[in-house]
Design the sequence.
């Protein structure tokens, strides 16, 4: 079967604004990823909500690896991701029934409420409820924004445009690092400012949700074909969009014929994109990236940095994260998805093993690394973050958003988002306890996962560069050496296919 055409398009100012405004959902998500780790390193926050943790931290001879081990402290971070896991399926329904734009609007409003409650929390219960609201906002935003970007992007630039989401995730992380560095000196309520400023990216997303257009695929799927055609012309910047429009119409007709999406996605022929979407989320989290991003200040304190120095080191990793994501933005549609993932596996593996060896040999329970040793750890963390930022970070969101057919796209992507949030919840809830129990071995644990990730990409992940979303099945899955065996319609024989 011949390769699908690359449809003509021109970038208008309006469509570029739509990309950036929608991607503010990534800014919102990234800020929250990082802000919680910095707050949990602040003494004022610990004294108010986790006094026992603060007492352990103050003991000079307390075990380096165990002084932050507290299930409630970890619940502060992880509760958001448990809420996001559940809410992503509700977001899938909203996305399908009402569209991507209203789902993004809902995400911003709920996140704003969560930011306000977290910043004003007077007890642990208010704090956790605020985190749950933030999680619902993240679940809705992470469901709708990558789908929006993939559906509105021209096929030849889909990778780069979708990665704008991850770029703003890294910007959010970087801004949160700067905020934490500043508010750590504002006693006793600096942590409130850190948590409250999460409302800024949410407000930006709210304003953006009022300006952006709905995607043509969503409009046509919901029976608004004329508006979908007009919208497609507007975002492509050309009059002749008939070929792409007809492909979306055909996909929408199939989608409207599916009354039970959950049953459809459980079919054998739906297995390739579903398995890959879920596996990528598991691997993305078990690289160990969020263990570093959530708890970088804690981690750097563990290896011997003082409080200010540890926060400053986190700012440095944030800068590396942002600029390395730009590498992915520039290369993903040129070199493809697989090569970036495989190269990063090698680089991340080397860094994890090296960090593990240094800590295993030189960091014991009650002493610190020397300054040169600690600097080497920070450099290795930067090289690790660099590799993740141009590979598994953005591509973990991009690939699932571009591989599902329209009839299972929102539900399939909800599985991806929920899998990501579940694994993030596990890491956020367990990392400090794992650090206490496994010590430096935890880095070898993540290194083993990286080896498994590389094997998965080599054997099971096809290249999706420059393939129109609605032509993915015949262009990719039917031709893949392994997945083609699943592409048999349940109502037809293999010979008929």
Sequence:
């Amino acid at each position: 079967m011949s390769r699908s055409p690359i449809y003509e398009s021109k970038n208008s100012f309006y469509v570029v604004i739509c990309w950036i405004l929608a991607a503010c959902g990534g800014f919102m998500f990234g800020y929250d990823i990082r802000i919680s780790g910095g707050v949990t390193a602040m003494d004022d926050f610990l004294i108010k909500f986790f006094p026992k943790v603060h007492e352990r931290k103050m003991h000079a001879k307390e075990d380096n690896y165990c002084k932050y081990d507290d299930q409630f402290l970890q619940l502060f971070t992880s509760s958001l991701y448990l809420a996001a896991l559940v809410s992503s399926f509700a977001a899938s329904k909203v996305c399908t029934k009402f569209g991507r734009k209203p789902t993004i609007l809902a995400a911003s409003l709920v996140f704003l409420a969560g930011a306000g409650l977290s910043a004003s929390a007077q007890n642990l219960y208010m704090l956790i409820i605020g985190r749950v609201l933030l999680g619902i906002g993240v679940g809705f935003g992470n469901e709708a924004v990558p789908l929006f970007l993939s559906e509105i992007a021209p096929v030849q630039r889909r990778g780069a445009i979708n990665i704008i989401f991850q770029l703003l995730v890294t910007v959010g992380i970087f801004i949160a690092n700067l905020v934490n560095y500043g508010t750590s000196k504002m006693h006793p309520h600096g942590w409130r400012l850190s948590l409250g400023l999460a409302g800024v990216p949410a407000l930006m997303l709210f304003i953006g949700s009022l300006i952006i257009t709905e995607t043509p695929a969503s409009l046509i799927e919901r029976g608004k074909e004329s508006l979908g055609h007009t919208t497609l012309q507007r975002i492509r910047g050309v009059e002749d969009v008939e070929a792409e429009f007809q492909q979306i119409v055909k996909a929408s007709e199939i989608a409207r014929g599916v009354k039970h999406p959950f049953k459809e996605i459980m079919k054998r022929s739906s297995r390739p994109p579903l398995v890959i979407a879920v596996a990528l989320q598991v691997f993305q989290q078990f690289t160990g990236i969020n263990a570093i991003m959530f708890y970088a200040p804690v981690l750097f304190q563990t290896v011997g940095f003082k409080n200010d120095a540890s926060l400053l080191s986190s700012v440095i990793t944030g800068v590396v994260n942002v600029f390395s994501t730009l590498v992915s933005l520039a290369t993903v549609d040129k070199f493809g998805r697989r090569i970036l993932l495989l190269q990063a596996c090698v680089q991340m593996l080397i860094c994890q093993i090296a960090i593990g060896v240094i800590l295993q040999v030189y960091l014991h329970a009650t002493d610190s690394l020397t300054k040169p040793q600690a600097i080497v750890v920070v450099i290795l963390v930067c090289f690790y973050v660099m590799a993740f930022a141009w590979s598994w970070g953005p591509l973990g969101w991009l690939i699932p958003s571009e591989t599902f057919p329209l009839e299972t796209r929102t539900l399939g992507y909800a599985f991806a988002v929920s899998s990501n949030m579940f694994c993030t919840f596990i890491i956020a809830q367990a990392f400090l306890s794992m650090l206490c129990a496994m010590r430096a071995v935890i880095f070898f644990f993540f290194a083993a996962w990286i080896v498994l990730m590389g094997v998965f990409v080599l054997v099971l992940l096809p290249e999706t560069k420059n393939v129109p979303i609605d032509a993915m099945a015949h262009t990719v899955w039917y031709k893949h050496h392994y997945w083609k065996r699943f592409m048999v319609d349940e109502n037809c024989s293999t010979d008929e296919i």
In short: The chain has one domain: 13-486. The domain at 13-486 is CATH 1.20.1250.20 (Growth Hormone; Chain: A;).
